[in-house]
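Lab notes, practical 5.
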Amino acid sequence: MSSQPQSGTAESVRRVLAVIPARGGSKGVPAKNLAPVGGVPLVARAVRACLGAGLVTDVVVSTDDPAIAAAARGAGAALGEADRLHCVPRPADIAGDTATSEAAVLHAMDAHEAMHGAVVDVVLLVQCTSPFLTSEDVEGVAAAVVEDGADTAHTVAPFHGFVWREEDTATGVNHDKSFRPRRQDRPRDFLETGAAYAMDAAGFRKAGHRFFGRTALVVTDPARVLEIDDPHDLARARALAPLLDAQAASLPTRDDIDAVVIDFDGTQTDDRVLIDSEGRELVAVHRGDGLGIAALRKSGLKLLILSTEENAVVAARARKLRIPVLHGVDRKDLALKQWCEEQGVAPERVLYAGNDVNDLSCLALVGWPVAVANAHATVRGAARAVTTVPGGEGAIREIAAWVLGPSLTHTPIPTSVPTP
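Output from the prediction step:
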């Protein structure tokens, strides 16, 4: 995560506001901005990219949907950047299908300036619909205006295709169809990615649109260019996420943590409960998770199972794994904080794995908040890392492989733990 700019005096630092428009209504993909890609809601991915850009001083999510606001705040809390992130309620008259992104940005600027009593110098428009936008992309468009003096800037990708238009007849748009020059002999063309834009704030207010004055092009990796407009785009993004996210992911290693704390229901189980005719409960756990936990224990890490539910199943599983358990806990964050103090472990050196909203307070407390793949969308947004497999299907084994090395690849061998 990049820090805010440190050079110069406080007065010399320009206010750079990144605005993420994220309305709740979407006809092409319902609840699109909450749709998970790589296990993380689109709005949370955009928040992370903006907060990771060092020149960005503040981030505003403009939304009319409380669930989107919650996912955005969770992402900010996970990065320890809650103070730089704000959610601005978007009025209905600029939240419909015909509303422009410019209208949302102008409204967000007004709200932010009124809240802080300070004028924004540079404003960014960052789109949730580009899931593979990076902090480097955001930093690039900001730098083009802040440092290089451009009036506007936006992300582009090299483009070498021949464009055609069909009216009365098919005609070449960027070429003469009677002559097909080699790529190296053609003008260098770029495709606007639709991901990130930066504008001098005063110029943007005057022009009312995102392109004015001198425009700088910030070239990004064409492999990451994808805009989600329909379900097919979303499916492609989800298919690409394991590859593209792995290239940029920061996952915890043994050097990063001193303790692993694990929720039980939905994290070590698949969140289902089987009840027999006598009222006894059975839950499904994963044998691979047991092997992963054993390896974590042998590595010298402190381990704990922390569960809201007071249940003999939880205690039985903890005994089997030979690790301590705290269950029947109403305030998991307070219990976790006390446990850290007793163990002499700094919270920022703790990995916490969870799946539901009652884990959010713990995720905000630790340095490595982790969500399982099937966690609630708000929890995935609050996580610093998300497993590729769901709870109860080897998620803890996967976490152990992050920490201790890839030799701990999980093998799906489910088992059941009965109430003793």
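Observations recorded by the TA: DSSP finds twelve helices and 20 strands in the chain. The CA atoms of residues 269 and 385 lie 19 Å apart.
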